[in-house]
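User: quick one, sequence for these tokens?
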């Protein structure tokens, strides 16, 4: 078995059922995964959950985060507001793997309205076990510089 990672997952109301199914499958496959909410299909703000997951990843408490909403757009936008987050919005395996190999993404976002659970599991696992190739260090360093400029100026 490949190395397992410490993962935190969150969703909004639109993706509650989707997240619940993904959690069941991943837990059955022995992933160390924590549910950050939301906790029902009636209440849960995407921006609050995205920040909670993003903060947990940036702090180092978790290695990776997964965020789900209807399209994944809102979660990706909200998570990427947190300094140090590289959240990738993906609906297929190839861009998910590239987001890790080329951009060292630390949060994967997707949409419950955009794919079914089996495809999402395949995408998540491909993303988790992809490795950063190191070819884009210069570009990633520039992104960090831009974050510092924005937040210090």
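Assistant:
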């Amino acid at each position: 078995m490949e190395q397992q990672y410490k993962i935190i997952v969150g969703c909004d109301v639109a993706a509650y059922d989707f997240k619940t199914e993904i959690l069941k499958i991943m837990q059955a496959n022995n992933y160390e995964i924590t549910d950050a909410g939301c906790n029902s299909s009636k209440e849960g703000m995407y921006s609050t959950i995205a920040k909670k997951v993003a903060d947990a990843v940036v702090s180092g408490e978790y290695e990776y985060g997964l965020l789900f909403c209807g399209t994944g757009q809102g979660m990706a936008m909200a998570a990427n507001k947190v300094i140090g987050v590289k959240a990738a919005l993906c609906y297929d395996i190839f861009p998910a793997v590239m987001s890790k190999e080329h951009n060292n993404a630390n949060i994967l976002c997707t949409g419950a309205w955009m794919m079914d659970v089996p495809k999402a599991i395949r995408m998540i696992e491909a993303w988790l076990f992809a490795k950063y190739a190191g070819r884009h260090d210069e570009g990633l360093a520039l992104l960090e510089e831009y974050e510092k400029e924005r937040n210090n100026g």
